[in-house]
Write a structure and sequence with these properties.
The chain is an alpha/beta fold and about 375 residues long. It folds into two domains: about 220 residues, Alanine racemase (TIM Barrel); about 100 residues, Lyase, Ornithine Decarboxylase, Chain A, domain 1 (Beta Barrel). Helix 4 links the parallel strand 3 and strand 4. It is elongated and about 80 Å long. The chain starts with 6 loop residues before the first strand and ends with a strand. It binds pyridoxal-5'-phosphate. Pyridoxal-5'-phosphate binds next to helix 9, strand 9 and helix 11. The site of pyridoxal-5'-phosphate (PLP) has 13 residues, from helix 9, strand 9 and helix 11.
Length: about 375
């Protein structure tokens, strides 16, 4: 309310804590969790979620995709280990030493630069060697290329290999996906090679939420899993399987700003995109595509909950949208729920993913800052 927002994204913090514990129980006591906070923590909000993980879930290390996010966490007072797992533009490398961050290493250019920065700062720089196993995004292949990098690290002397990691390209698609199995084999080769060169990295990690859910060999080989999806409480597999028993912790909603009746032949919104053939009651809702809500959801008659009834959107504009409330008792001022429960009805993230044909990372990651994040502890 204090922020005068038209729409909200409410997070049940205790449920996230329980989900974190559910994931920890599922993976067992020998593997820890690196919570991933990329994309504004998939829309949940970067700093509040980082604080939750570090202060209430026992996370000792956090992962960001970008230096910008990692520095934001340091400036917010978070002193846990932070690893930036995404590619880093070279001109941002000074932040790694200045803010005591950890970063990927897979190439000689970065090694030289980082070593120089570390020398200037009078300390060592902590790196996680990224093994190229098949994603072909960032990484170095085991064998000769990795040997040359290891030799360079030894020569430079002030880069500390604190971790080794890789990332599966297909782990969300199928249990025991053969490509993921091959990626794991290559990852093991890389880790072995680094150990044989005399290093003993503290962080070995290759599983995201999905891989941690099915790939127990890869999980057991690792010291940590990297998870965003599952620790929040969302299912990780593309087909909807979710073996952990997670509970969705969020509610996304807005408010009814008008309710009125229309007669056959009347239209709703720009371009007369929706024309009714029967008498209808239409509600105007205080959320639109400028809030970062997937436009197709509202334009193609995706679901919305009003007064405990599941009904449909009829269209959307930049800041407002329309819902069919024919036969539903409702009034100006009340909530319309896009994600969450209302009475006996529920719209889940999975429902939304199916409807939009898009992943929740995208659908939530684009939700804008003017949708108020409400962190509930009750
Ligand atoms: C996004 C990301 C993760 C987290 O993935 P989830 O499936 O949400 O757990 C882990 N590792 C890397 C490299 C990522 O990019």
């Amino acid at each position: 309310m204090e922020n005068y927002c038209n729409a909200y994204f409410k997070v049940d913090m205790n449920e996230v804590i329980r989900n974190y514990k559910r994931v920890q129980d599922y993976i067992g006591p020998n593997t820890d969790i690196i919570p991933v906070l990329k994309g504004n923590c998939y829309g949940y909000g970067l700093v509040p979620m980082a604080k939750l993980y570090a202060e209430h879930c026992g996370a000792k290390i956090l992962a960001n995709a970008a230096v910008y996010e990692a520095v934001s966490l340091r400036r917010a007072g978070i002193d846990a280990d932070i690893v930036v797992i995404g590619g880093i533009p070279q001109h941002l490398l000074p932040a790694i030493t200045a803010y005591n961050l950890q970063c990927p290493l897979f190439d000689a250019v970065t090694a030289h630069r980082l070593s120089k920065l570390a020398t200037e700062a009078g300390k060592s720089a902590k790196v996680h060697i990224k093994i190229e196993t098949g994603m072909n995004r960032l990484g170095i292949q085991p064998g000769k290329p990795l040997k040359e990098l290891i030799d360079l690290v030894k020569y430079l002397g002030n880069l500390e290999i604190i971790g080794v990691y890789s990332h599966f390209a297909t782990s969300t698609a199928d249990y025991y996906d053969s490509f993921a199995l091959e990626q794991f084999r290559r990852f093991q080769d890389g880790v072995l090679q680094i150990r044989e060169a005399g290093f003993d990295p503290r962080y070995i990690h290759c599983c995201n939420s999905a891989a941690a859910a099915w790939f127990s060999e890869a999980k057991d080989f690792s010291t940590h899993i990297r998870s965003c999806t599952s620790v929040l409480g969302h299912m990780a597999m593309e087909d909807g399987r979710e073996p952990i028993g997670l509970v969705e912790p969020c509610e996304i909603g807005a408010y009814i700003t008008n309710v009125h009746d229309i007669v056959p032949g009347e239209s709703v919104g720009y371009g007369r995109a929706f024309i009714t053939e029967k008498p209808m009651t239409v509600a105007t809702i205080s959320i639109g595509f400028a809030d970062g809500i997937y436009p197709g959801w509202m334009r193609k008659q995706g679901p919305v909950l009003i007064s405990g009834t599941k009904t449909r959107f009829l269209g959307c504009c930049m800041d407002q949208s329309f819902a069919d409330v024919t036969g539903i008792s409702c009034e100006i001022g009340q909530k319309a729920i896009l994600i969450g429960k209302d009475g006996n009805e529920q719209i889940t993230t999975w429902d939304m993913e199916q409807f939009c044909g898009n992943t929740f990372e995208y659908l939530y990651g684009t939700i804008g800052s003017r949708v108020e994040r409400i962190y509930s502890w009750v």
